[in-house]
């Protein structure tokens, strides 16, 4: 293996030579080449240092207990029947129930706003926009709400109403795209710590 | 870890065993989180995506056929979810493939670059300057210690693309570390 093309072939394998995942055959080829190639030996030295450095600086600090608690709570909320059907079917069904039940609930809340003469200020969103009405938990932090809106590709268009309702526009969802809407509602449903109610207008 | 393999845990999770999911989470959340974080860049978003990934593990464990390692399968899910999160945030970095961008021909001084790597901040800085597509290959190779065919499987791309991205990433890192190393003045 002294040809330039062999050098290129071996050089492309050196990262995985260093992380120890090459096949035996590849490893033997690299080892043989290293015996007479100073450039590749220097590259191995660099890559070994890089591997050690990356393992040192990688951020893996996340509290497992907090995340695990949340995960288990969400799993608890699922029905046992779900596991016998494709995962997305119950999600869509659950989203539909959320729309139906909370839509009715919030429709009434919204009406009460009208009754007491309080309306949301602001311009009306475009007719073709997908608008959700949402009520955040009293303890929700601003950064959590910001992250949620970013995840949903949404923006505030109105609120709060007298009962604390906001209207958000789902910029990334086209009207009529039920699957995208269901995904957005699912995301909201998974945010029980910060979202109390949600409904589609 | 209690010695039970990730594959064995997935088999139990597929049967609805919550204890197995808990074990799986405790054993692997750090590695999955680290992978997601270096992709999405923000801890809050990374924690969200980690939750989505573990929910997918719970829901889809029965689909794991054992054709790849369990962690490869999970990181494949994480890659998909992180990509989705980036798209929703409107970042186009995920779609940017810089493999065809020609690299400058000047060779970096590997020894200077190697010395600069001792400074974690410099290394972080240079890793952060890589394109997203290149950084993910570097992370999966040197943090996760995965083989290039496994990385290709996770990223759903040809093995040749993985090698090309690594080649570009190495050059860019070397150049960045060399420059940073030359600029860097020791504090003492």
Give an overview in words.
- The complex is a heterodimer of chains A (201) and B (188).
- Chain A is α+β, with helices and mostly antiparallel strands and 201 residues long.
- Chain A is 54% helix and 11% strand.
- In chain A, strand 2 (154-158) and strand 3 form a beta hairpin.
- In chain A, helix 6 (88-115) packs across helix 8.
- Chain A starts with a helix and ends with a strand.
- The relative contact order of chain A is 0.11.
- The longest helix of chain B has 25 residues, at 159-183.
- Chain B has 188 residues and is an all-alpha fold.
- Chain B has two domains: 6-93, RNA polymerase sigma factor, region 2, helix turn helix motif (Rna Polymerase Sigma Factor, Chain: A, Orthogonal Bundle), CATH 1.10.1740.10; 96-183, Orthogonal Bundle (Arc Repressor Mutant, subunit A).
- Mean pLDDT of chain B is 81; it is low at 92-106.
- The radius of gyration of chain B is 18 Å and the shape is elongated.
């Amino acid at each position: 293996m002294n040809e330039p093309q062999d050098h290129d072939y071996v050089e492309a394998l050196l990262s995985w030579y260093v992380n120890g995942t090459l096949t035996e055959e590849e490893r033997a080829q690299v080892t043989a080449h290293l015996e007479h190639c100073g450039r590749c030996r220097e590259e191995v030295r660099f890559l070994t240092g890089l591997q050690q450095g990356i393992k040192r600086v990688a951020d893996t600090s996340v509290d497992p207990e907090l995340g695990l608690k949340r995960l288990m709570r969400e799993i608890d909320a699922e029905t046992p029947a779900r596991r016998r059907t494709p995962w997305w079917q119950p999600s869509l069904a659950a989203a539909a129930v959320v729309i139906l039940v909370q839509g009715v609930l919030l429709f009434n809340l919204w009406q009460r706003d009208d009754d007491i003469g309080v309306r949301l200020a602001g311009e009306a969103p475009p007719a073709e926009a997908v608008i959700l009405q949402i009520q955040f938990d009293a303890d929700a932090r601003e950064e959590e709400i910001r992250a949620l809106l970013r995840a949903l590709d949404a923006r505030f268009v109105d609120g709060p109403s007298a009962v604390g309702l906001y209207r958000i526009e789902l910029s990334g969802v086209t009207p009529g795209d039920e699957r995208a809407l269901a995904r957005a509602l699912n995301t909201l449903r998974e945010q029980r710590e910060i979202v109390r109610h949600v409904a589609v207008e | 870890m209690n010695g039970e393999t990730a594959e064995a845990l997935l088999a139990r999770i597929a049967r609805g065993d919550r204890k197995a999911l808990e074990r799986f989470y405790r054993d692997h959340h750090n590695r999955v989180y680290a992978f997601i974080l270096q992709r999405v860049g923000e801890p809050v978003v990374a924690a969200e995506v980690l939750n989505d990934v573990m929910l997918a593990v719970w829901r889809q464990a029965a689909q794991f056929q054992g054709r790849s390692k369990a962690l490869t399968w999970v990181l494949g899910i994480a890659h998909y979810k992180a990509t989705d999160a980036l798209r929703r945030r409107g970042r186009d970095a995920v779609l940017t493939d810089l493999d065809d961008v020609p690299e400058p021909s000047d060779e970096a001084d590997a020894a200077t670059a190697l010395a600069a790597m001792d400074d974690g901040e410099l290394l972080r800085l240079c890793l952060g300057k890589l394109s997203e597509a290149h950084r993910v290959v570097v992370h999966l190779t040197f943090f996760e210690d995965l083989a290039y065919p496994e990385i290709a499987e996770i990223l759903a791309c040809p093995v040749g693309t993985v090698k090309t991205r690594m080649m570009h990433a190495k050059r860019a890192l070397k150049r960045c570390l060399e420059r940073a190393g030359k600029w860097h003045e020791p504090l003492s």
